[in-house]
Each structure stands twice: as C-alpha cells, then as structure tokens.
Design brief:
Low-confidence stretches: none
Number of helices: 3
Largest sheet: none
Oligomer: single chain
Radius of gyration: 19 Å
Order of helices and strands: HHH
Helix content: over 70%
Length: 75
Amino acid sequence: MELLAELTGSIGSVGYGLAAIGPGIGVGIVWAAYIQATARQPESAGLTRTYAFLGFALSEALALIGFVVPFVFGI
C-alpha cells in the first residue's frame, strides 16, 4: 500500500474550524429570528430577548465543546 500524503502538526485546529461553522450559522439564525419577532410585535421584545440570549448561549456552548474535544482526545 502506497502512502500518498503525510499530515504533520495538529489536525485538531482543522477540526475546530469545521466545528465552528455550525454554531456560527446557529447564532445567525437565533438573532435573525429575534429581530424578525421584534419587528412583527415590538411589545414582546423583552420576552423574546430572554429566549434569544438562551439560544445564543446554547449555540456558543457547542462551539466551546468543538474547541475542547480535539484537545481532550489529542487528535
């Protein structure tokens, strides 16, 4: 069997780059939904703001998990 390529260095940084795409899209969707909800019904901005921050925090938690996992498993 012939070896075509050899990877050196930390492949974990590539994994984190790929893992950051999903939460980035998720954060964009959360804030887009908040802006749309506030534009449609401005008096509910206080209630929907709470849900927007909760969704933002959960999306960012996924990004942090994606950052930590390559270091934990040493890939």
